[in-house]
Write a structure and sequence with these properties.
This protein is an alpha/beta fold. A 9-stranded mixed beta sheet has the order 1-3-4-5-2-6-11-10-7. A 5-stranded parallel beta sheet has the order 22-17-16-24-25, with helices on both faces. A hairpin with a 2-residue loop joins strand 19 and strand 20. InterPro entries: Ac_transferase_dom_sf, Acyl_transferase_dom, Acyl_Trfase/lysoPLipase, Omega3_polyunsat_FA_synth-like, PKS-FAS_Synthase.
């Protein structure tokens, strides 16, 4: 190991004159990890925090140069020179650290860098010449990187920082690049908006940063310009559970065993309460490993499982007591119990391999909201990277609108954009649950256009992304059943001289029969949706309001123009069918029953060829153009065996509706009340993304749905390693102070 400082450079005024790209791979290191320390001592930490670097054995085979930042410009010049001579370099301050090596060396050792330094230029001018210094220096760097100015995704101008601040700031920007995180200016957003979210980019376009560091001393201004592009790697996922978001699983086969396990966990918590933070993390990790082992080994799975969630050890102990107190009644009544913190237990598991009543439910248009999913990318970076490779993620989520700084933009999205973002949100959450946690449904169904989300998300359509541009431009969505409502004008036999249609829809608390009895008197008002104890009427706003007045009911106006599920939509039936006639994948799911609202059963297939694209398209068209009876759809799903309804999409509107349908069934003594029914939202507007997801996982675990918790275990392993790293650094610092004090005492 070699140590370099600014004194190793012959002149701190040296200027980088190379015209060739630098091609230097950058890895963001967790601080205060010192790669030059004893390899045996750091090997275990590196294996968890930097597994690629560990498996490459690069630290044992290459000369490592350690640079402590004291003169950033000189340090970087020395670093680049060392890298050109085949060395790898760790450059650090007390709070930030980068590992730098030639990109070819990284590729040869199968290391995916977080970023790549493509250019570095240093310029100095007198004050009279410095008005365009940053532009001039940056243009030189762009020339060195062989890039045009329009390829730069973001430019950062950072004046008057000292060397340590310069390095720390550059590391922070590289970290954001590796996290694919866009940082918003706090002064430009409301209190409800996210300060950061996913850094979206155009499809197949890499993220590139231009960073300009300027400093003025007396009459001279100097500038360092960097061009940094994203690497093939990304910062490891944040841990889903940690010392402020606790989760434990307690399982057993009887009430007595459960109570014993709860008491045993409480004793462990008491013994760990005053210990180091890593102790509670280790306890959670070991608890999850035991759960994972039982399911992986496919040994006899415990009949019951309780998931416990809390934000501290103290509140976890309160959750334990509350659960223990409630347990006898829950088991005797075969009921369920949940706490506001997210702890959950059911005595009637609906997701076991034997019963398997798991159904994925897909919401329709209008559930998406501004800043949705703003946290997810930091916890599932590999998922986002895959989605970005597979298609246009930015368009799929309509990011320009959903994450617009003006919070009024998202609610005003046109129908086509709402449809795209709705399918996109369902697709993302489905991939998360299926790919990350290995959850597979037995049934699938959709509310309205949720049927399209169902086919797009569950491995049926070969290229669902192809529908994005079609949805934005096809007259079906832009003018036929929205906008100018040409389908309605045709159905109502209006000519071009007729005034514009004033259309609206209203949610009203009423049964369908009461509305249907009055519809003949209001020919331009329609019963669009039946959903439990409420219905949606749509059509000419005047006639809808007259209908409501006649019923002596108050309706909640949606103020959205869409003629879906009304008689005029039948004018577009053939166009809808053609729009959704999509090519299918060669290998199709065989273990999922797809239930259509049009037919009410799971026979969306041809008996000889299996799932058929034309039958799918016709089913979507039938659902699209007729009244949607969501109540009947849920009842049909229940009769076929669906009991555990997991909503895959933005917000939790379908869960609310299904809960109301089940409640109504119980109150009126419907035959459907004989079927168990439980809903699980995976997202909730106004809630914390990860907390809601963790609660959903907790419900699924208690319902004994087969799944993996490896993402939770992996996150805890990294978190434990980081805690150990911080503890070791703290101990080293304390020891250093003690030695310093001893020396001073000796001198006295």
């Amino acid at each position: 190991m070699v140590s370099l400082t600014a004194s190793a450079i012959s002149s701190s005024d040296q200027v980088i004159k190379s015209e060739m790209p630098l091609r230097i791979a950058l890895l963001v290191l967790p601080s205060p990890l010192d790669l030059s320390a004893n390899v045996e001592q750091t090997s275990e930490l590196i294996s968890v925090l930097l597994p690629e670097l560990h498996s490459s054995k690069l630290l044992q085979s290459s000369e490592l140069v350690s640079v402590q930042v004291d003169d950033f410009e000189a340090n970087l010049t020395a670093t680049i020179d060392a890298i050109e001579h085949g060395k790898i370099v760790q450059i650090s301050t007390a709070t930030s650290s980068l590992l730098m090596m030639h990109a070819l060396k990284a590729a040869q050792n199968r290391i995916h860098p977080h970023a790549q330094l493509a250019a570095m230029q240093i310029s100095s001018f007198t004050q009279s010449e410095s008005t365009t210094l940053a532009d001039s220096c940056m243009n030189k760097a762009l020339g060195q990187a062989k890039r045009h100015a329009d390829s730069v995704s973001k430019r950062f101008d950072l004046p008057q920082l000292n060397s340590t601040q310069q390095f720390d700031t550059v590391c922070k920007l590289i970290n954001d690049l590796a996290c694919r995180t866009h940082q918003r200016d706090a002064s430009s957003i409301s209190a409800k908006q996210a300060a950061n979210h996913y850094w979206f980019t155009e499809h197949h376009q890499a993220r590139v940063m231009a960073i300009n560091l300027t400093n003025t001393v007396e009459s001279t201004t100097s500038c360092i310009s960097f061009i940094v592009s994203q690497g093939t790697g990304f910062i490891a996922a944040k841990s889903i559970i940690d010392s402020k978001r606790l989760q434990f699983i307690v399982s057993a086969n009887s009430e007595a065993e459960l109570l014993n396990e709860l008491a045993r966990l409480n004793s462990k918590l008491e013994s760990k309460q005053a210990a180091a933070p890593s102790s509670i993390l280790t306890l959670m990790r070991d608890n999850l490993l035991a759960y994972e082992k039982q399911h992986n080994d496919k040994v006899a799975i415990d009949k019951y499982a309780i998931t416990l969630q809390a934000n501290s050890v103290e509140t976890m102990q309160q959750e334990l007591k509350a659960m223990a107190d409630a347990l006898p009644k829950i088991i005797s009544e075969q009921g369920q119990y949940r706490t506001p913190a997210g702890s959950y237990f059911t005595a009637n598991a609906l997701g076991t391999v034997e019963q398997n009543g798991l159904a994925f439910v897909y919401p329709g248009v209008g559930t998406v909201y501004g800043d949705m999913f703003s946290q997810l990318h930091r916890y599932f970076p590999s998922l986002y990277a895959k989605l970005e490779r597979d298609g246009d993620l930015k368009s799929m989520l309509q990011a320009d609108t959903i994450y617009h700084l003006d919070s009024k933009v998202a609610p005003a999205m046109p129908l086509g954009d709402l449809a795209i973002a709705g399918v996109g949100s369902s697709y993302l959450l489905t991939q998360l649950l299926v790919k990350a946690f290995n959850v597979t449904p037995r049934f699938a169904l959709g509310y309205s256009m949720g049927e399209a989300s169902m086919w797009a998300s569950l491995g049926v359509w070969s290229d669902p992304h192809a529908l994005i541009e079609k949805t934005k431009t096809d007259p079906l969505f832009t003018s036929a059943i929205s906008g100018k409502l040409t389908a309605v004008r045709q159905a109502w036999q209006l000519d071009s001289t007729s005034p514009d249609i004033v259309w609206n829809s209203f949610v009203v608390r009423s049964d369908a029969k009461a509305i249907e009895a009055l519809l003949p008197e209001f020919p331009r008002a329609y019963l669009a949706i039946v959903q439990g104890d409420t219905c949606v009427i749509a059509g000419c706003e005047i006639q809808c309001r007259e209908l409501l007045a006649r019923m002596k009911k108050r309706g909640i106006a949606a103020n959205r123009v869409t003629a879906m599920h009304t008689a005029p939509a039948m004018e577009e039936h053939r166009n809808v069918e053609q729009f959704y006639d999509q090519p299918l994948l060669e290998s199709l799911p065989t273990d999922i029953k797809f239930i259509s609202a049009a037919s009410g059963d799971s026979t969306v297939s041809n008996t000889t060829t299996g799932i058929d694209s034309q039958i799918i398209a016709r089913s979507i068209a039938d659902t699209f153009c007729n009244t949607l009876d969501f109540t009947a759809l849920i009842h049909s799903a229940q009769k076929q065996g669906a009991t555990l309804f997991v909503e895959l999409g933005a917000d939790r509107q379908n869960c609310t509706l299904i809960d109301k349908i089940a409640k109504q069934d119980r109150q009126c003594g419907s035959k459907s009340s004989d079927f168990p029914c439980c809903t699980v939202p995976t997202n909730a507007k106004g809630g914390d993304d990860i907390t809601t997801l963790l609660k959903a996982l907790g419900q699924l675990i208690s319902h004994r749905v087969p799944l993996t918790v490896s993402p939770l275990i992996d996150g805890l392993n990294r978190q434990i390693a980081l805690e150990q790293l911080a503890s070791a650094a703290c101990a080293k610092q304390i020891k250093g102070k003690q030695m310093s004090n001893l020396t001073l005492q000796g001198e006295v």
